[in-house]
Amino acid sequence: MDDEFSFIRSIVPRETYQERLTHGIGDDAAVYTGKDAWDEVVCVDAMVEGVHFRKDTLSPFQIGRKALAINVSDLAAMGAVPQFYLVSIAIPPSWSAEELTSLYDGMRAIGDRYGMDLIGGDTVSIKDSLVLSVTAIGRVKKGCALFRNQAQPGDVVFVTGPVGGSAAGLELLDQRGRFGAFTEQEQRYVLMHQEPVPQVEMGKMLAEQPYRVALNDISDGLASESMELAEASDVQLVLDKQKVLELSPQIDSVLPEKRVKWSLNGGEDFQLVGTMSDSAFSACCEVAQQQGRRLYKIGFVRAGEPAVFLASDTGEQALQMSGYNHFKRR
């Protein structure tokens, strides 16, 4: 097996049994009918030591914080508000009780920020590397959940903030470790990797608007997440290279091409990327501004076989899904 995403497609159930299920595999989270005026939203993510994190780049507190933040970002992409979480953890002998307490403190910091309750989980031992699996549950107003399959030709492509900062921070951490010396400019990107902020408020705002919106969170890189929107909606996304560059890490010593690569392929920014009509985009920009936030236009949608292109003065370049893929041969 050499492709994570084809494997996922191969295990999608041919049929479902629960009438309450409104949206299953294929988005950032699943949605099923809840009580009264709400739909329930559920997601799960696993983190493996040595694959997703290392203790020389993240403290135990930051590992725990990030583990829950990843799930909260998936809920945000659906327009949902977080409520509960469960934690399953496999602990190796190399982790001390103090480190584990700090890890759970990190999750608690995110839980406190969004009013989430820890309601269960499982704890087991393992020989080698720590494995952490977090399930998050949220809710969204009935019928208002946001999905990837709503993009249409003529739409604006937008993001909710800077992209590529986490990849830049990870590269700096790989070079110097988490106890290394960083300039103020560099420290900004280090923290983007270590302590990402899910865009819950922005996702909620978009879900509350009376517009068609396609949305995805940027966990595996802007190019990969844009391709997921394109495939789900059967359209093409064209990204403006200059606009992507303007939102990429502004590190003086780094060439523009590398900054764009960080933005397209780096991942773990946990901003949101989406599409909507031009008129809806203008209206949502006004609402975002009233809330002290911004939406950034970075491209457009057109008809065609699902694909993503990067447009510049010299033409268009087809982008590949080159974000993180667990089973890709390296």
TrEMBL record:
User: What GO terms in the biological process aspect are recorded for it?
Assistant: thiamine biosynthetic process; thiamine diphosphate biosynthetic process
A GO molecular-function term, please?
Answer: thiamine-phosphate kinase activity
Q: Name the positions where Mg(2+) 5 binds.
A: 220
Which residues take part in binding Mg(2+) 1? 45, 122
The cross-references to InterPro entries, in alphabetical order and at most eight, read: PurM-like_C_dom (IPR010918), PurM-like_C_sf (IPR036676), PurM-like_N (IPR016188), PurM-like_N_sf (IPR036921), ThiL-like (IPR006283)
- In this chain the PurM-like N-terminal domain maps to 26-140
Q: What class of enzyme is it?
A: transferase
Q: Where is Mg(2+) 3 annotated to bind?
A: 28, 74, 217
State where substrate binds: 52, 268, 324
Residues where Mg(2+) 4 binds: 28, 74
Taxonomically, the superkingdom here is Bacteria
User: Which UniProt keywords are present, listed alphabetically?
Assistant: ATP-binding, Kinase, Magnesium, Metal-binding, Nucleotide-binding, Thiamine biosynthesis, Transferase
The yes or no answer to whether the keyword Metal-binding is present is: yes
Q: Where ATP is bound, by residue?
A: 104, 121-122, 148, 219
Give, as in the UniProt entry, the pathway in which the protein acts: Cofactor biosynthesis; thiamine diphosphate biosynthesis; thiamine diphosphate from thiamine phosphate: step 1/1
CDD domains with a match to the protein in the record: ThiL
Q: What does the entry list as the binding residues for Mg(2+) 2?
A: 45, 74
Note, other? Reaction mechanism of ThiL seems to utilize a direct, inline transfer of the gamma-phosphate of ATP to TMP rather than a phosphorylated enzyme intermediate.
Which family is it part of? Answer: Belongs to the thiamine-monophosphate kinase family.
Q: What does this protein do?
A: Catalyzes the ATP-dependent phosphorylation of thiamine-monophosphate (TMP) to form thiamine-pyrophosphate (TPP), the active form of vitamin B1.
Output this protein's name: Thiamine-monophosphate kinase
Native source species: Shouchella clausii
